[in-house]
Amino acid sequence: MSEQTGKQMSKEEKDARFEAELLPVLDPLYNFAYRLTLDEDDANDLVQETYLKAYRFFDYFEQGTNAKAWLFRILKNSFINEFRKKSKQPAKVDYSEVEGYYNSEDVEGESGVASTTDMRTESVQDLIGDEVASALNTLPVDFRTVIILCDLEGFTYEEMAKILDIPIGTVRSRLHRARNSLKEKLEKYAKSMGYNS
Amino acid sequence: METRITDEYQRVSEEGYDTECEKVANMLDMVIDGEASTEEQVYFNNHLEKCVSCFESHQKQKLLKGLVSGHLKRVIVPESLALSIKAKIQETL
User: Which listed site, A11, A65, A155, B26, has its alpha carbon 20 to 30 Å from B54?
Assistant: First the structure.
């Protein structure tokens, strides 16, 4: 039974195997799609399309291979093709607006200055998370992608090279440049909040 | 007046890096991402013990990675998504 390939399986068996092996990746896959498109509906469409493509090629999927990396690769390619087709850019969050918002809060809210100094409070944690997300969203999509794959999803350089179809050396240099760019954006924010890095 | 500088002082280190710091800077991401070999890791750690500026760069880069992995909120998958994927697959022959 376990030796059976997709081609010999009944549809019920194939569906059951597909769900058991590939649906557990739904959460990270949706998160990746959301970070690429920055839009819930687009992420939804992209994930559905990815699973349908994966289903079509499931006969060629070998049990025990890296299902997560395979799905991420399909999704990344769908994203590139989709956006090329529509010649539409992902929704952009205007970083300067977000930055301006925090700056004006800083200036106008002189009465509540002490509230942000306790790093343990949940709201500060949220604020940091929001700021990291805003900074990340302003990065070019190639930079955003490597940071998410590496730091959020924990893929190895080798897996990233396979997902993105680029040499490992390019993964390394892209990640390095992406981090420099993110650092720059976050340092600006840290300074505006009065932290000297 | 002639100044004699010995070869030893002028020697540029191997592998095309002018300084140990440059070599270590190049390893930084690999070390943080757990991709460095044991030898590279040892070289890196030894250098950090004697170089404050590389030590600080390492701290900053670790902090940056931690900001993404520890603070970036995960979005919640809509409940309907898994159901609609299953439904579409069942329709597919």
Answer: A155
Residues on chain B touching A175 (C-beta within 8 angstroms): 29, 33
**Which residue among A48, A132, A133 sits closest to B85, beta carbon to beta carbon?**
A48
Tell whether A122 is within 8 A of chain B (Cβ). no
CA distance B24 to B36: 11
Of A31, A43, A179, the CB nearest to B64: A179
Distance (Å) from the alpha carbon of B10 to chain A's nearest alpha carbon? 30
Domains plus CATH for chain A? 8-86 (1.10.1740.10), 95-192 (1.10.10.10)
Query: Does residue A99 have a pLDDT over 90?
Result: no
Residue B2 domain-assigned (yes or no)? no
Backbone conformation region of residue A31, classed left if phi is above 0, alpha if psi is from -120 to 50, else beta: alpha
Distance, in Å, from the CA atom of B81 to the CA atom of B87, rounded to the nearest integer, reads 10
List C-alpha distances in Å: B73 to A34, A90, A132, A166, A174. Answer: 12, 20, 9, 28, 23
In tens, the pLDDT along A141-180 reads: 999 999 999 999 999 999 999 999 999 999 999 999 999 9
Express each pLDDT in B14-48 by its tens digit: 556 779 999 999 999 999 999 999 999 999 999 99
Chain A residues within an 8 Å CB radius of B25: none
Closest-approach residue (CA) in chain A for B28: A176
Query: What number is the ipTM of this complex?
Result: 0.80
Q: Is residue B1 part of a domain?
A: no
Q: Number of A:B CB contacts under 8 A?
A: 89
